[in-house]
Amino acid sequence: MGNIISCQFKWSQENKSELVKCVENYDLLQNLLSILDNICNNYPEESRTEFKKMIRWRTIHITPSIFTDSSNYIINKDTTKSSILVQSLQHQKNGSPLFTLENDVTSESSDENSSYIARASTLEQIHTILNMVNDKKLIELQNMVKENKDFYSYVTGISGNNQINDIWDTNKSNMNEDEETKKRFKLLLILNACDNNMLRNLLETNVKNETVTMNKIESELLMIQSFCGKEDCYALESIEWESDYKFANGCRATPWRQIYNELGYIKVLPKDKEKIIITACINGFFINKGYITNDKGVENIDYEAKSSVYPSLINLLKDYSPHFCEKIQNQEYVYVNNSNPQKEDEIKEIVPQPKSESTLETPTFIEEKRKEVENVQNVPQHKTEPKKKVTTKKTKGKSGSASKKLDYNSKWRTLNTKSTEVGNRSKEITRTRPKKKVASSSKSLKEIQRKASSNLSEWTSDSESEVSSEEETQENRQETSELPSEYWQIQKLVKYLRCGNPTATVIAICSLRDFDLLNETNQLAIRDVGGLDTLVNLLDTEDSKCKIGALKILQLISQNIQIRNAIADLDGMKTLVDLLGDSNEELKCLAAETIANCAKNSRNRAAVRHYKGIRKLVRLLKVTPGSKEERVAICGAMALSSLSKSAKNKVAIQNAGAIPLLANLLESKNEQLLIPVVEILKECASSESYRLAIQNSGIIKFLVENLSSESEELQTNCASAIFKCAENEEARDFVRVHGGLAPLVNLLNKKDNKELLVAATGAIWKCSQNLENVKEFNKLNTIRKLVELLENQPEDVLINVAGALGACAQTVDGRESIRCSGGITPLVGLLTGTNQALLVNVTTAVGACALDSESMSVIDKLDGVRLLWSLLKSPNHHVQASAAWAICPCIEHAKDAGEMVRSFVGGLELIVSLLKSEHVQVLASVCASIANIAKDEENLAVITDHGVVPMLAKLTNTKNDKLRRHLAEAIARCCRWGNNKVAFGSAGAVAPLVKYLKSPDEQVHKSTAHALHQLSMDSNNCITMHEHGVVQLLLGMVGSSDPALQEAAAGTIGNIRRLALASEKAAMA
């Protein structure tokens, strides 16, 4: 949408902020509407992603009156305190509404035709608002377009044409951790894909109407290039394309410029004037404003025309440069007819007779060395098919142009880019000159197409950021002057690896190992010269010394992310997996260690699984703990720990029979072995099947024992594994039985190691969900230590600590310990946070503490109930449900709870509105809250006015027993006001309630009997109950051991019986 708004619409010449009224603009607005509908329908999660900055536009059709019937917007009747007239119920992360409408104070319009300012921060809100204005939606969309030309900058907060690259470069390190940035990046990709489709359609239309073709431009450019040189006798210093990359249609201009009928850009360095950039378009040629530098110091072309349009390139240059005009008229050249097809692509140059012999001297020694280095850098890094030899012309005015790689914007990698060539030339204008061979440095066509056709979705699927080899090579070449001497020495040594002589190869390997191969520059030096390809190929030789030497180098350099990506490109995992079956123990260990490093890349992990490497690695674990073969098991375990990051690999590891072998290795005392073994268990324990296998294999005992290890890394892995395994009740019992609770509590003292602290608090949280464990934790003074961790800790620790305190607060002693340790104040303070997981755990803890009257007094003084109520507005349904559950005990144990609830402005209306939620947990928690609120008669009257009766009645058809229980209780409480009993009957709530008595849950029976007892006080409800067979169901409950259930069942039957008797008397009379 960004490029559509800025490029494709036709703007008025008189007023640049106004759109021209034409068919093209109308069609574009219709297309934008369909794109908006498509995104909101097919990508609902992304459509709700918040913009970095709200878009704004003036409107006269969006008025407060259209929001009257909408429950998702609040109309502010009191405008003295705020200028906002309408705002959405949903809020942004910073607390601001997703949509606002306010008066346009700058407008001079009359009251009858008032002007407003609308602001929105999600596509979903824009879509909703446009649907509200019905037939005026095109007008409103037009207003948005006029006032928000750079739409992408509002989404990302970044201006320019390269937002995808900029946001990726800025956030790639924390993309997987920052959920909001990840969603915004996905939205940007979706919008960009829509842009591409529309750009392509316009592009195809424009290409059909070309008058100047790329073939004509290429032919004219080649001719003019033959008149370029440094001597004064030449017409120009140099002329060349500004970009080496061609798109699928043969054009060199980027697609967002091709919609302006531009085909490419040509750099010209005249003899007598400054360098210029010429735009070639279908109408001819013109000079643009050249390069400009942006805020980041990056040069971009200013495409605005600086001259008039010329029909040919020569005409433009003649007019611009007098020197060119003079020389081109007097230049001697011949018109050559190439009848030999083998020489079709060759340019022969005829040079004028030199004035001295120095102009025809052969290249100096320095020039030869320079070209040798260029040729070394251009060695291909991939196993490719033999390339077609290409001869290119290298002018003196270009430094390194022959070795420049194709570099195109990654934003267009999804396009079907293919390298297209100019048609065969039967005739060429040439000048003779001594020929110089120039090595071609471009990537093979196959490699370029592979990268160009890759989907943008791969950016978000991989955890590592992958830098293309083109960009890396370009970066290295730009910094050649700053590279250390070791860089060039390593590249020379790599050449000896290819000599084919085993002795020379071994010597070269040994010499390479003398360098610091953990240094990134040295690692990239091997890659840049094509050494990775050679090292991988050496693994296929029969010489074990060469293989071991190559593996030792690969094992070190594969710790670099870029090297791992390059190995994935070379499909190096196949050879490494084959070496795992070798009889040489040294080879197996080195291969496994290399795989351990490479498997941090997702493509390498998938390749190892594909080549059956996981089963081979599991076999390496078949050793006796404490034996000499432990080194093989260590290497195998390291590789499997890296591979276990993938869900599919976890399944493959289990299917290969790894669990018994891992349990056996846990008996070892070697920490180097235990660390990777436990790390495998930690990664795999996220799966239910693994947790059961770990539990049944007795592994938890060993995990508990190693919590007391001296290695903090091993302690962290063990605590993390227990954290994941303790999801099961039996595992929590095993941890207590094997004495694991005390070591976990002792780990809380190591506050400097945050990773260990996260693992320990997580394990304590899960274990504290067992009441027996809570008793043990109370004896160990755990709660005091947990309360100390509520401040100055990262959110991961706070989430676990709050969860543990919430579980401990389920007991009376736990609640008292939290209050005495001063834990209430920091818990209430955390209610103002934004982390959703943290809020869920904190609300649970505060709600549990509220069961204690003294703790409730502290919560009330700290305004904790108001904070809980405000969380009901959260867009996260888990937070809403948790807050509603926490409100229940607060109302129940607060002093003067009715008045407290009424003091919250709009609080009762808000909680009633949540009965429209689609989530069962939210509905159940809200029903429970309403049941407590309805205990106060005034509050019951207020929520009745807000329509609580029909909303509760609408929910009665649910089959969820948890919701049934609290819904029935809420109905029972609400029946005590006015004619609510009659209203429930009219709303059809009675018949579904009778079905609740067939539920197996006794709590549902109890609350349903209370509701039916209240409803039976209305005669019509009694008739409905009797018709649906309620008497037989209640008769069985009269004999229940629960007195409350007995009384409610008997009372209902009594009311029905009295109505029957009254009917009989009336009939007899």
Task: Please explain how this structure is put together.
With 1069 residues, this protein is α+β, with helices and mostly antiparallel strands. Among the domains are: 1-205, no CATH class; 214-329, copper amine oxidase-like fold (2-Layer Sandwich), CATH 3.30.2280.10; 484-611, Leucine-rich Repeat Variant (Alpha Horseshoe), CATH 1.25.10; 896-1067, Leucine-rich Repeat Variant (Alpha Horseshoe). Helices cover 55% and strands 6% of the residues. The chain contains 57 helices and 14 strands. The strands form 4 sheets. The protein has a 5-stranded antiparallel β-sheet with strand order 1-5-4-3-2. Strands 6-7-8-9 form a 4-stranded antiparallel β-sheet, covered by helices on one side. The chain has a 3-stranded mixed β-sheet with strand order 12-14-13. Helix 4 (123-132) packs across helix 5 and helix 18 packs parallel to helix 21. The radius of gyration is 38 Å and the shape is flat. Mean pLDDT is 79; it is low at 332-481.
